[in-house]
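[job 0412] stage=fold_complex status=start
inputs:
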Amino acid sequence: MDDFYRDYILDHYRNPRNFGRLEAPTVTAEDLNPLCGDRIRMDLLVDADGIVRDVRFSGKGCAISQASASMLTQSVIGKSLEEVAKLRKEAVLENVGIGISPTRMKCAMLGLRVLKSAAIGSLAAWPDEE
Amino acid sequence: MSTLHFSERQTRQSRTALEIRNDFPIFERPTARGKRLVYLDSAATSQKPNCVIETLDTYYREYNANIHRGVYEIAALATERFEAARASVARFVNCAPGELVWTKNTTEAINLVAYAWGDANLRAKDVILLTEMEHHSNLVPWQLLARRTGAVLRFIPVDPRGVLVLDDLDRLLDGCKILSLAHVGNTLGTISPLERIIPRAHAAGALVVVDGAQAAPHLSVDVAALGCDFYAFSAHKMLGPTGIGALYGRRALLESMPPFLSGGDMIRTVEYEHATFNDPPWKFEAGTSNVADAIAFGTAIAYLTDVGLAWVREHEKRITRYALQRLAELEPRGLVVYGPKDPERMGGVISFNLADAHAHDVASILDTDGVCIRAGHHCTMPLMQRMGWIATARASFYLYTTEDDVDALAAGLEKAARIFKV
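[job 0412] stage=fold_complex status=done
writing structure:
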């Protein structure tokens, strides 16, 4: 677990990428982890072809949830909503690169769940339970 | 564990804590990572002494039988032990056995009052008074009661230290039919001054429900002296098993209230179209009771009584004072302690945060060294919002907590500070 708190994780935690809100998002979703109250919102700007052109996330939470969401946003632009909807938990786990304990899996998956919810227009399943 | 080093600098009382630990088998086992278990989450649930575990085992091995109806020997024995446990728990909080209802836990006890008393007695615009620091279990049942009856909720405020502000109490009590509040707050450890609050609530015509989940394990509770109308608590936070709790209710109130859950065991007579009900407390105990856990709750009470609540309280004050001191040493690293910070005015519960590290991350780092603390909102989301906190880390103590445990907490926090570079 010490391993998880590598410099790049703490960097994403303290300097999250694509952080904030879009002025006129095409789709948006928000959810919280009821276990800890961590909260994440994802705004997507989607063009007529269904391709994500811009993304912002906002929220508060632990280093794992915030860094996972931050890293996720970096790989979203240029993807179709269909592709976003099909993202699996590995998309996050490969980003963070370190093993996540079962007790912290929901923290890591919160951003992806919210992102997928925005893509499908309703609350997505927890990616680790699919 | 550096027992020798430990015993050299400890008082006689702390050596008693070391002796007490010998009664708890969980402390004999290392964690999965091979560390000493440093258990600082007793506010969530306490560990269990051998005698409680053995009571459960003996019941199932030697006299498992349903109570109150069987005519045979082991059924009679089970019934006798079950009712003897009720008498022990009743004596522990100074009420009559007939005023002590078994419940699943504190939450169910509060729900019992909210449904059985609340639905029968509250009308639209009646006031339900709570405090801003209540656990969700002493908030949500009242929200639902308010929705069913049209009653309104009011809240006694807390100041930034988490201390109740009573300046406006009489105004808040105007129109109030029921006041429900924690004896000890679960997030900040604040002890409510019940002796000042209850008489004023009664003078205003309100009943008083006390959520004693965090108090009954740690303070000597006397419901007769307090004068409260209901007092709810859980066995699992006071050395007993999960799944059993108790509600003290003033006899006249229990008699006047309709049942909560219904079915077998709570009836006197049943016909096809209607039924009459048993006397309290059985009127509120529908279905087969949690026999084994109730009996083991009695054992836990016997153990606590033997140690003595006065000693438990003094020990926890000593540990809390030591922990506040060790945590204060980490202030230069950005550690912030919340709550009253005064062992005389709080239970053995300390909430804190470390710089900009999220409490969950801190708890995960501590976990790698076998240190168990809680992180999050502690089922007090409105309090967190009121205080502007996203989450806090919480360490909580009990009769088996030692200064060594506190040192392990401090060492873990130093490590977390290094990892987070604060």
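[job 0412] summary: The beta strands of chain A are 27-32, 39-46, 52-60.
[job 0412] exit 0
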